[in-house]
Design a protein that fits this description.
By secondary structure, this protein is α+β, with helices and mostly antiparallel strands. The protein contains eleven helices and 18 strands. The strands form four sheets. Strands 8, 13, 14, 15, 16, 17 and 18 form a seven-stranded mixed β-sheet that branches. Strands 4-3-2-1-7 form a five-stranded mixed β-sheet. Strand 2 and strand 3 form a beta hairpin.
């Protein structure tokens, strides 16, 4: 790719690759994404890169410059002005949680202009963002996943509220089908709560998924692969007194996160094996994180998939940095490993 050629030349001249940390987006997770971008920039500070945060929001693409100002991005080639210099990044590290960074849209753009990026491709991103489609695909491969039904805004419902409760039971979860976090998610305990929960979720996504509730130990496991091999990080156990792992638990500290998780050696290995198997089956790239619920007897638990995150949070307290640290690695080294893998022959 042209950007790769330019970057290779820069390295020979001891010049830095230019890394665009692409953040923001048009979902409720816009501000969370910017926090992840700040985290990534901090992690990369000791790496041989020049970094810029590129914020995408509401039709505007702006590069944040070191002097605190912003510069509009030319979408023809993803370049922008920094002082008297025209800058075209060599690589895009995507950390948008939600649209357009987690559903394949921005990946398609980067494919068109020939710029390497940190995540999976258009197809994988679109599939993993659509929870219901992903669940049906992985279930066909033998992955254990809770039963669910799909509802679409403006379309006659195939299932009445009574049908949903009769099939899934109570409590159940209602969540946006296309979304990357806990916005719009409700734990429904009574029949009267179901319709308001559906409407709340439809404020986040035109498609809504009602899903049977599973009780057990919640865990999450991250991994990535380069041409040199695969790395599966230590597993994190998620403990919260909240009704579920909601926004406050994720971002406001209402949770206890234990890394490595308190699991048997056998269960730990099975979770890691399944995580890497799913990664390879889907053809993922970059870091992903898979959330699970474990049920059953200790040491012989059943592993149920909850969700796949292809642009996981990257603040200092997010799961992936915790897991990287527990593995005895530096986050900046892991990110550089992913970046440099795109430039190897």
């Amino acid at each position: 790719m042209p950007s790769g050629t330019q970057a290779a030349g820069k390295n020979k001249l001891n010049m830095k690759r230019i890394i665009a940390i692409v953040a923001g987006g048009d979902s409720s997770e816009h501000d969370v994404s910017l926090r992840s971008a700040d985290g990534i920039r901090t992690f990369l500070a000791d790496q041989p890169y020049k970094t810029y945060i590129i914020e995408i929001h509401a039709g505007q693409w702006l590069a944040h410059l070191d002097d605190g100002s912003t510069s509009p991005v030319d979408r023809n080639d993803f370049s922008f002005a920094d002082g008297g210099t025209r800058v075209r990044p060599d690589f895009a590290y995507i950390t948008i949680h939600g649209t357009p960074g987690e559903n394949g849209i921005i990946q398609g753009y980067f494919d068109l202009i020939g710029m390497p990026y940190s995540t999976s491709d258009v197809l994988v991103e679109a599939m993993t963002f659509n929870k219901y489609a992903l669940n049906q695909f992985l279930r066909s491969l033998g992955v254990k996943i809770a039963d669910s039904v799909l509802l679409r805004k403006g379309q006659k419902r195939r299932y009445s509220n009574e049908d949903i409760i009769g099939r899934l039971g109570l409590p159940l979860f209602v969540k946006p089908n296309a979304g990357g976090s806990s916005f719009g998610v409700t734990k429904v305990k009574t029949a009267e709560q179901l319709e308001p929960a559906i409407q709340k979720a439809m404020n986040e996504s035109r498609e809504v998924m009602a899903e049977a509730m599973m009780s057990g130990t919640e865990i999450t496991c991250g991994c990535y692969r380069t041409r040199r091999g695969a790395t599966v990080f230590p597993i994190t156990e998620v403990v919260t007194d909240n009704e579920f792992f909601d926004y406050n638990a994720k971002y406001n500290g209402q949770v206890k996160e234990i890394t490595p998780a308190r699991l048997s050696v056998e269960t730990t290995q099975r979770v890691k094996d399944q995580t890497l198997s799913i990664y390879d089956t889907l053809g993922c790239r970059g870091i992903i994180r898979i959330d699970y619920i474990l049920t059953g007897k200790r040491g012989a638990e059943r592993i149920h998939l909850l969700e796949i995150n292809t642009t996981p949070g990257m603040t200092a307290t997010s799961f992936i940095p915790q897991q990287v640290k527990a593995a005895g690695k530096k986050v900046g080294d892991v990110l550089a490993d992913i970046i440099e893998d795109c430039f190897e022959d």
